[in-house]
């Protein structure tokens, strides 16, 4: 972990010559502070971290990065006009470090710390599958190397530097998910992380409302492969099946490894068989070898996740046995949760978020399962110009898979109308305004053998449906 003297050096460029104290972890949430933590007081439109300084120190923090004065009586090292060692002499903890901008300081420290770490970093971006790829890649690499990953969705200009600052020197690999909302964001994150390997999953329509179009999203995602070091030090792992991702090969100076379901890719899969809730089975090919693999991941779309994680493993020198061991022993089944109600119905809760691509993949999983299939599908948000077409696509797929469709939310009316136009009987389609109305519709009507898929954007809060149905008598 980084020390207080190193933080001062990172912020000023001045080596003060004092050893300093080890910082146990860096946090922006005062509730997560532990003895020896550094609390970073960030300001936003919704909150001001300076209001929680006292709580952070009460919970064990010994240091704080601040951008305004404090009346707590704790010593403050003011770096705003520091020019030499006398200006930045260390105090006895606890103390605060005052800067012009706390977020910029956090990012600057993380960039400096990354430069001291003799390890390899894997960056992962894409519209769908970032988190599952990160988790599975960390599982695979962990079979041979001490591996760190960013927790949860720590994938932006705040979460990524926090992740890097909390990496100790004992680690050999870091797997980082990188989020995207606007062009230039991934380039900025790469300037902090300096990734050696870049993985692009796919280019979908999520965030098109902010970015504008799939082409602009692709441009933003390509910033990852453009930031990689040249061959033989860097490698771009690209989706051969996605034309917008495949085209990124010409934008990087790094080696390129293609993955996909096409035999022309470098690492590819065929003989795919969905096994419902037991997982998937397929044959994976790489170079002159192949192996049949069964993994406990749900849905045929998970094959792509496995290929990405395996590609990372091969590049980093893992054997087939080590990679397969990581895949088979993985607990990576992130956001889709299968629960059973007291009536005996099975609920597939995939309510973390939704795009047309991920919803269609979830419907493919529903198709594999036995029983009466009920699809509860909510609005998909942030699709911009692709909103109508995305909901129409999902409606067409729902008509193919579901015995009954419950559409939730204003936008989902398009899903309902599309499903009916594609042959799902009107009596099998119900539209409701919100999650509670869906609960009321399902609560006393589910029976043993029913399979219910619940899928929608996080803002629709469809997770409430699962909670109430689980508790229903």
Would you summarize the structure shown here?
The protein is built from 16 helices and 20 strands.
Explain what the structure shows.
Helix 4 packs across helix 10, helix 4 crosses helix 11 and helix 13 crosses helix 14. The protein contains 16 helices and 20 strands. Helix content is 33%, strand content 20%. The chain folds into three domains: 99 residues, Udp-n-acetylmuramoylalanyl-d-glutamate--2,6- Diaminopimelate Ligase, Chain: A, domain 1 (3-Layer(aba) Sandwich); 212 residues, 3-Layer(aba) Sandwich (UDP-N-acetylmuramoyl-L-alanine:D-glutamate ligase), CATH 3.40.1190; 135 residues, Alpha-Beta Complex (Protein-Tyrosine Phosphatase, Chain A), CATH 3.90.190.20. It has 473 residues and is an alpha/beta fold. The strands form three sheets. It has a nine-stranded mixed sheet, with helices on both faces. The protein has a six-stranded mixed sheet with strand order 15-16-20-17-18-19, with helices on both faces. A five-stranded parallel sheet has the order 1-2-3-5-4. The mean pLDDT is 90.
């Amino acid at each position: 972990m980084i020390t207080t003297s190193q933080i001062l050096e990172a912020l000023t460029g001045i080596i003060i010559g004092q050893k300093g104290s080890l910082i146990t972890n860096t946090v922006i949430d005062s509730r997560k502070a532990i003895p020896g933590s550094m609390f970073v007081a960030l300001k936003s439109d919704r909150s001001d971290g300076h209001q929680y300084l006292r709580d952070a120190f009460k919970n064990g923090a010994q240091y704080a990065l601040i951008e305004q004065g404090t009346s707590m009586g704790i010593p403050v090292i003011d770096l705003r006009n520091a020019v030499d060692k006398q200006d930045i002499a260390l105090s006895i903890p606890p103390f605060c470090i005052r800067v012009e901008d706390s977020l910029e300081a956090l990012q600057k420290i993380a960039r400096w710390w990354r430069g001291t770490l003799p390890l390899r970093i894997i960056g992962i971006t894409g519209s769908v599958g970032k988190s599952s790829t990160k988790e599975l890649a960390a599982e695979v690499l962990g079979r041979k190397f001490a591996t760190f990953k960013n927790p949860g969705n720590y994938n932006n200009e705040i979460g990524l530097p926090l992740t890097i600052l909390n990496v100790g020197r004992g680690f050999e690999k870091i797997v980082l998910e990188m989020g995207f909302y606007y062009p230039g964001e991934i380039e900025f994150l790469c300037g902090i992380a300096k990734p050696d390997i870049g993985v692009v999953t796919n280019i979908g329509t999520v965030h098109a409302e902010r970015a504008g179009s799939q082409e602009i999203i692709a441009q933003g995602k390509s910033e990852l492969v453009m930031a990689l070091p040249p061959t033989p030090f860097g490698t771009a792992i690209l989706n051969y099946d996605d034309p917008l991702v495949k085209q990124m090969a010409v934008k990087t100076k790094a080696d390129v490894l293609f993955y996909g379901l096409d035999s022309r890719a470098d690492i590819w899969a065929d003989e795919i068989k969905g096994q419902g809730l037991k997982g998937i089975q397929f044959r994976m090919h790489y170079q002159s070898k192949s192996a049949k693999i069964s993994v406990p991941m749900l849905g045929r779309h998970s094959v792509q996740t496995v290929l990405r994680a395996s590609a990372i493993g091969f590049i980093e020198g893992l054997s087939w046995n080590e990679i397969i061991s990581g895949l088979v022993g993985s607990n990576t089944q992130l956001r889709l949760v299968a629960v059973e109600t007291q009536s005996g119905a099975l609920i597939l809760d995939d309510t973390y978020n939704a795009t047309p691509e991920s919803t269609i993949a979830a419907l493919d999983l529903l198709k594999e399962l036995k029983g009466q299939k009920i699809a509860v599908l909510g609005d998909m948000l942030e699709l911009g110009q692709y909103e109508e077409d995305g909901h129409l696509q999902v409606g067409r797929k729902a008509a193919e898979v579901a015995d009954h469709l419950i559409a939730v939310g204003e936008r989902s009316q398009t899903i309902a109308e599309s499903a009916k136009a594609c042959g799902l009987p009107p009596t099998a389609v119900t539209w409701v305004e919100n999650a509670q109305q869906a609960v009321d519709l399902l609560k006393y009507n589910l029976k043993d053998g029913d399979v219910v898929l619940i899928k929608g954007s996080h803002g629709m809060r469809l997770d409430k449906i699962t909670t109430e149905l689980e508790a229903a008598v």
